[in-house]
Amino acid sequence: MEEMQLLEAVERYLRGEMSAEEKAYFDQLRRSNPEVDQLFVEQSIFFQQLNQFSDWKNYKSTLNEVHQQLLAEGAIKESAPKAKVIDLWRKYKRVVAVAAVIAGITTFIVAGSVSYYSNKANRLQVEMLRREFKRDINATKNDLLNKVNDGKATKAPQNKAPKNGGTGFIIDGKGIIVTNAHVISNANTILVLNNKGDEFRANVIFEDQKSDIAILKIKDNDFKAFNAIPYSIKKAGAELGEQLFTIGYPRNEIVYNEGYMSAKTGFNGDTMSCQIGVPANPGNSGGPVFNKSGEIIGIINTRLTEAEGVVFAITSKNIYRALETLKEKDTAAKNIKVPVSSSIKKMDRMQQIKKLEDYVFMIKTY
Question: Which CATH architecture has domain 125-134+161-366?
Fold first, then answer.
C-alpha cells in the first residue's frame, strides 16, 4: 500500500467511513506491520490537532461576528471621547464585563494554541496508569463488609479506604513482587491481593522513581511460598510486531488484553521503555507484559493521552538492573532467585492464563 493510499485509509478510519470488513482488515494490518501502526498513531494525533485548531478558528470567527454586531447596534464603540468614558462605563458595564471575559478566554486559547504548535513534543502528555480509589470509597466499604460476612477480616488499616494501587507480579516464590514505583509512592501501608481476594501485607525493599520500578517483599504469616514460577523474565525484550499480552487489575478482578510490540523505545525515544499496542487503563500500572512463550518483556507504566492504544512499558532488563542495585545495598537480597525458564511456552493461551493468574497481584496502598 503506497503512502498516500495509506494516509487516505487512516483518515477514513478515523472519520468512521470504513465498512466493518475494511476496519477489520486495517486493524489486522496495524497488528502485523509496526510501521503502519506508528503512522496511524502519528496521523491520529495530527488530525486531533487540526480539529482543535479548527475549533479555535471557528470560535474566533464567532467572536468577530459578535463584535461586529455589537458595533452595528451601537452597544460598543471602537473609540469614544474622553468626556463620555464614565457615562459609557455606567451604561455598558455589563457588556464590557462580558467582553472582558471573552477576551480573557480568547487570549488563553490563542496562547495555548501558539504553545501547542510551537512546541508539539512538549504537548504530548503521558498518563501514569496508577489506580485511584478515592471515588471507590462506597465500593470499598461494601468489599470490607463482604469480607467480614465471609469470615475474612480485612488487614487494611481501620477506618481507612485505599488511596492508590495497581498491579504487581511475583519474581521469586518467597514473596518478592515487582511493580511500578509510582504505584506505591508515599504509602504507609501496602496490601497485595491474589486472584482469590486473599490479602497479604508487604513492605518496600527497593524503590527507584527514575526507572519507575519498586520491589516488594510479602511479610505475612498467611502467605505460602510458591514452589516454582511458570514464567521467566527475558533480558532481550521483544521484536517489532511481536504478539504480546498483559494481565492486570484495572478493576477488582483480573483482566486479560492482547496486542503487539509497536516500537523499541518509549515516550520521546526513552530507551528504558518500549511502546506496545495494547489497551490499558488505570490499575494496569506495574502489570507484566508477556510474549507468546510466557516470558516477561516489560512492565506497563504509562499511556499516551492523545491517542488510543499507545501504551509504554519499562523493558524487563531494568528488573535485573534494579535487583543488582538492591543486592549491592542489602546482602539478604542475594538470595532472590529470578525464574530463568518458562514452563508454559508450548501451552495455548487459555492454559497460559490459568497458570499465570496466581502470580499476578492487585496492589492497594494506604
Answer: Beta Barrel (2.40)
Which residues have a Cβ under 8 Å from the Cβ of 51 and sit 6 or more positions away?
none
Give CA separation, 84 vs 64, 90, 93, 100, 314, in Å. 25, 10, 13, 20, 67
User: Global pTM?
Assistant: 0.67
- Rounded to 5°, angle at Cα 173 from 296 and 360: 50
| Alpha helix segments (H runs only) across the chain | 3-14, 20-32, 34-73, 85-118, 120-123, 137-149, 181-184, 317-329, 349-356
Number of Cβ within 10 Å of residue 185's Cβ equals 16
Higher pLDDT, 149 or 237: 237
Domain boundaries, the chain: 3-123, 125-134+161-366
| pLDDT tens digits, one per residue of 199-216 | 999 999 999 999 999 999
CA angle 306, 24, 258 (to 5 degrees): 60
Residues 6+ apart with CB under 8 A from 101: none
- pLDDT value of residue 9: 78
pLDDT tens by residue, 32-42:
776 677 777 76
Q: Please state the length of the chain.
A: 366
Question: How far is the C-alpha of 46 from the C-alpha of 40, rounded, in Å?
Answer: 10
Active site residues: 182, 212, 285
